[in-house]
Amino acid sequence: MTTQWLKLYMPRSLYARAALILVLPVIVVLLVVAIAFLQRHLEEVTAQMTRTAAREVTLVQNVMEGAETQQQALAAARSDLAALNMTAKFLPLNQEPQIDKRRWYDFIAPQVEAEMRVLLPQMQEIALPNGHEVRLYLGTNLGTLELSFDRRRLSPTAPHQLIVTMVFFAALITTISFLYMRNQLRPITRLADAAQAFGRGRVVPYSPGGAIEVRAAGNAFVDMRARIERQIEQRTLMLSGVSHDLRTPLTRLKLGLALLPEEEAAPLLQDVDEMQSLLDAFLDFSRGTAESSPEEVEPEYWLSQIIDDAQRAGQNVELVSVEGQGTAMVRPTAIRRAVENLIGNAIRYGSRAEVSLSMTPKSLRIRVEDDGPGIPVELRTEAVKPFTRLDPARNQNQGSGVGLGLAIVADIARVHGGILRLGSSERLGGLCADIVIGR
């Protein structure tokens, strides 16, 4: 429970997590090295160099102490200034020290200023405008003395270069590592895409690759997909044979019953018709999506055709709303069978049906609502199971159903990687059935 909050901020994709694993340690190492470098190396070196420069400035001040005029003071210190590579001058009485802005990345300047103020109590101001020059303003009995010398005598030159170099090579190594890692992750994403497509009823080309473990998982997926396809094919072939074998004796029974008197043959013909209906429903359920392959369709146009066909057949059905637009990859024949089953159930148990379509960038939803008795909440799970008859909820005497209508719809939705959701219609008061599949 203590790590639940962390999951909210963690990336979801494999590439993002791999990048985080690569980048986070590099950033931590850079921070540790930078802090250690600044505190232990730069600060100590800068303090030593500052103390040396302060002693040289003190020497110049001591040489000038005995002079009575500014010119005498500068003349007395001329040889020392030349030896120390310094320049000196006195500011006019009304001139203020010129303090320019420092560079934003000059993070050593505050330490230099603090050290010099401690070592040189007479110092009024210090100017560190760039990385090449330092100007000290000292208060003397002759006026304000300006001393100028090389900045490299106070601190290392360009101390930020080490950090810039570290960041550059860290970024370079991280980029190379990520490119290599991407090649290792690509087989995993290809396997995920193939598995997701197969879960939605599509078969995309896939060949195992990558590391030994990823290749083993890929080979297992290919074998599993092949077994499932063989099972579906064998089931379809078996059911085709069963259909042929059973329809022939049923036809002979109908011919034989046609020779009997109508009153005697009527009950038997009803039994034969019920057997025919049961056989057709069972074959529709077993056939599933074997009759069609995935195609890219326009759901709005395709659903309008289904509604038009149902209206021509005398069914009271209407397309009430369409949200979103675009195309979707579905098995048209299978989805058409699912929608027709929902419309048929709605008309069988109610007086009218309303169909709506909603599309988002990731999902497609087809909703069918009716004004019938609906299905109680506690029975909705059982309603999608094969050969389930819910007599208390839906009057089976109103139709010839055998309990496979919703089961066929649920099976088709699952083949597309989706789901069939049952609820209550707020508009009509009956059943609300949603087919939700991914795009």
UniProtKB/TrEMBL annotation:
It catalyses: ATP + protein L-histidine = ADP + protein N-phospho-L-histidine. InterPro entries: 2C_sensor_his_kinase, HAMP_dom, HATPase_C_sf, HATPase_dom, His_kinase_dom, HisK_dim/P_dom, HisK_dim/P_sf, Sig_transdc_His_kin-like_C. Keywords: ATP-binding, Cell inner membrane, Cell membrane, Kinase, Membrane, Nucleotide-binding, Phosphoprotein, Transferase, Transmembrane, Transmembrane helix, Two-component regulatory system. The chain crosses the membrane at residues 14-38, 162-181. Its EC number is 2.7.13.3. GO terms for cellular component: plasma membrane. This is histidine kinase. It comes from Ruegeria halocynthiae.
